[in-house]
């Protein structure tokens, strides 16, 4: 039986002024799994991520989400079909409270109509608190977003991404710039999120994702080097060579 793929790429290629950052990558992402895209700096991970999330279009090839070709869709339309991302750009309003930040994201989804009903507003409030509790910010709802520590801001970005109730959550280097302690709690959170939905995360620290991922996709010089379960990737000679000295 073939795997249930929520997302796949076909011959995905992206060039920047003649430089090929991603070359002919065809890979599938299984529904309900946690997949990590890894590779050394400059491997093309962020480029791949931006193509998967619709930040910019491919030069060639396509992204197919649940059998639907996403070519030509605008970035916000990716969210409508069920693909949400975190960390690629900051969507936090720094002067607003933590709760307001999530409420705004929820409102964007339900639309203006419901916003004016008091009951709907309270339901949004409850949902915002629920999401904030999930990401570990339940005790910080009234604080201003800019007062949060770095790791907490990233957790807030996840809550904002979750407001769209995505089928697929994309994260680019979720632990970048984090302390070891923040990193551990972010990893715990990612595992928890992955129990409920499909998660694809981009990371250059191989060790970090080996223990939590179901599948690994390795990029190198813009090409797909290997894909498989963590154990297979660990044993892969080409992957070892690429990571030597890291
Ligand atoms: P990674 O995230 O794996 O570190 P990137 O996808 O950011 O790698 O970059 C892959 C390659 O593409 C790098 O050599 C980078 O310099 C180049 N690149 C990425 N974005 C651009 C851009 N907007 N313009 C020109 N070159 C780019
Ligand atoms: Mg990157």
From TrEMBL:
Listed transmembrane segments: none
Pfam families assigned to the protein according to its UniProt record, in alphabetical order: ABC_tran (PF00005), BCA_ABC_TP_C (PF12399)
Keywords assigned by UniProt, alphabetized: ATP-binding, Cell membrane, Membrane, Nucleotide-binding, Transport
GO molecular function, one term: ATP binding
InterPro entries: AAA+_ATPase (IPR003593), ABC_AA/LPS_Transport (IPR051120), ABC_transporter-like_ATP-bd (IPR003439), ABC_transporter-like_CS (IPR017871), BCA_ABC_TP_C (IPR032823), P-loop_NTPase (IPR027417)
Gene Ontology annotations for the cellular component aspect, listed alphabetically: plasma membrane
Protein's UniProt keywords contain Transport: yes
Location of the ABC transporter domain: 7-246
Record carries keyword Hydrolase: no
SUPFAM superfamilies, alphabetized: P-loop containing nucleoside triphosphate hydrolases
Protein name: ATP-binding cassette domain-containing protein
Organism: Duganella aquatilis
Upper classification of the organism: Bacteria, Pseudomonadati, Pseudomonadota, Betaproteobacteria, Burkholderiales
């Amino acid at each position: 039986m073939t795997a249930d793929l929520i997302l796949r790429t076909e011959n995905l290629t992206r060039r920047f002024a003649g430089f090929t950052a991603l070359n002919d990558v065809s890979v599938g992402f299984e529904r309900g799994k946690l997949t990590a895209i890894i590779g050394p700096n400059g491997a093309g991970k962020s480029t791949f991520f931006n193509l998967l999330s619709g930040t910019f279009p491919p030069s060639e090839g396509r992204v197919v989400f649940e059998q639907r070709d996403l070519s030509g869709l605008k970035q916000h339309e990716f969210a409508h079909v069920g693909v949400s991302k975190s960390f690629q750009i900051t969507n936090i309003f720094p002067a607003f409270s933590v709760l307001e930040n999530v409420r705004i994201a929820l409102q964007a989804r339900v639309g203006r109509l419901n916003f004016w009903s008091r009951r709907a507003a309270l339901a949004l409030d409850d949902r915002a608190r629920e999401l904030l509790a999930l990401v570990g910010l339940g005790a910080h709802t009234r604080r201003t977003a800019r007062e949060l520590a770095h790791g907490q801001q990233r957790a807030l970005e996840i809550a904002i991404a979750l407001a769209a109730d995505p089928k697929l959550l994309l994260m680019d280097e979720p632990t970048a710039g984090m302390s070891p302690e923040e990193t551990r709690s972010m990893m715990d959170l990612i595992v928890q999120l992955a129990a409920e939905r499909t998660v694809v995360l981009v990371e250059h620290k191989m060790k970090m994702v080996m223990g939590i991922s179901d599948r690994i996709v390795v990029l190198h010089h813009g090409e797909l080097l290997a894909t498989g379960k963590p154990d297979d990737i660990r044993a892969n000679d080409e992957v070892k060579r690429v990571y030597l000295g890291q």
